[in-house]
Amino acid sequence: MYSEDILISVRNVSKCFHIYEKPADRLFEMLLRKSRSEKFWAVKNVSLQVKRGEAVAVIGRNGSGKSTLLQMVCGTLQPTAGEVILNGKVAALLELGAGFNPEYTGRENIYFSGAIYGLSAEQVSDRMHLIEEFAEIGDFIDQPVKTYSSGMFVRLAFALIVHVDADVLVIDEALAVGDVFFTQKCMRFIRDFLKRGALLFVSHDTNSVMSFCRDALWLDKGEVLFAGSAKYVCEKYLEDYYSEINGRKSEEQFKEQENELKENPLEKAGHLLFRDSRQDFVVHTNLRMEYSVELFDCNSASFGEGGGRIINVAMHDKEKNPLSWVIGGEIVTVRISAHFRQQFKKIILGFVVRNKNGQHLFGDNTCVHSLQHGWLGKNEGEVAEALFTFVMPRLPAGDYVISAALADGMQDQHVMHQWVHDALVFRSHSNSISSGLVGLPVQIELR
Q1: For the domain that residue 94 is a member of, what is the CATH number?
Q2: CB proximity list for 287: less than 8 A, separation 6 or greater
């Protein structure tokens, strides 16, 4: 079937670089036929497959082998072992300025790069106005690209790959330097492109990964650490991130950050909870928004240092009654209870609502409240709870989860003791009257 076409097939690919202590060692190695180098395996035995209509992400820290893997997919590096099979034209946006001659103007580089992608000069001329319109760099297109900012580099490079009739896009973190308006334009193009092509995507933004990609690959020191659904891999990546930063925190860092915040005291925010003008009408129509809520799953996957444990997460109404069914637009409270196995000096409890792809939709924690009213501490064996009250937003039909977290410290300097991925599951049974990922209560006047 067309939708099952495999456009990228990477089979047991490895890449080895030879590291020389001194430049002269290269010559000695050639003359003496004796190795004077150390082998560095940037990529080790990696396999992946991307079909038409699919997007696969590669995540990992700097130096993990992501860029090397993408360069082998694009053909700019040859693998030491394994093979890369491509079915269709590949367009790549790798490191900034790759493939551009800095002395040439933007226009000249478009003709030069277009020829590399197999376009004739006439074809490039026919598309030049579309490329200029997409890039939005004005008269700079006739200036040498060595005068460009990093943002203009991205604009020109992306505008080019959009118009070369590629079957496969390979994008390596480059969009991170673009402004928000251009980035959103690129994201819209990618969503449309995935109806007919394939995407291999590298990003440190796990929300973008979960938004675009069904599957993901986590590289660490050149090897595949985890592979599977984007949601699963990103959760593991998040767990590893917290494991590392927890090992770096110190009491001095906590105190330093708290003093900085006290120098800029937060003003108490007023809470404006108005009622959506459509609520009473919608409740009695087929547009009524309903959510079924499951019970807290104490066995849900979690990670953390274990100094405390979340023992319950529930959704309540304004009378504090547990809810198994919620009406959209009504006021609800998410209650998180935690038990402490050791002393906590500065408790942070929080939650995040995510959709089935793992995208974070909204959430909050107790940190700012504690800065306003004083930090809550607990001793071993004690219990604490946090209550978050808000108007239940309108969410498209589907499954959602609430992730809950317990930490000790400050907003940016804390020890994560437990993060429960899918603490509470709820389902939207909705014919939503809003658009987007989340619909907020709105007051409407028509005059």
Answers
A1: 3.40.50.300
A2: 431, 432, 433
Q: Does the residue 144 lie in any domain?
A: yes
Give me the percent of the chain exceeding a pLDDT of 70: 83
- Do 232 and 371 have their domain in common? no
284 and 399 assigned to the same domain? yes
- Structurally, how many domains does the chain consist of? 2
Q: With beta carbons less than 8 A apart as the criterion, state whether 37 and 25 touch.
A: yes
Contact 410, 257 (CB under 8 A): yes
* Chain-centre distance for alpha carbon 355: 13
CB 59 within 8 A of CB 203: yes
Length of the chain: 447
Q: How far is CA 280 from CA 69, 245, 289, 315, 333, in A?
A: 56, 48, 12, 22, 20
pLDDT of 199 over the 70 cut: yes
Q: In this predicted model, what pLDDT tens digit does every residue of 380-424 receive, in sequence order? A: 999 999 999 988 888 888 888 899 999 999 887 889 999 998 899
Confirm if 169 and 198 have CB atoms less than 8 A apart. yes
pLDDT digits (tens, 9 = 90+) for 96-120: 556 788 899 999 999 999 998 889 9
Q: What is the value of pTM for the model shown?
A: 0.66
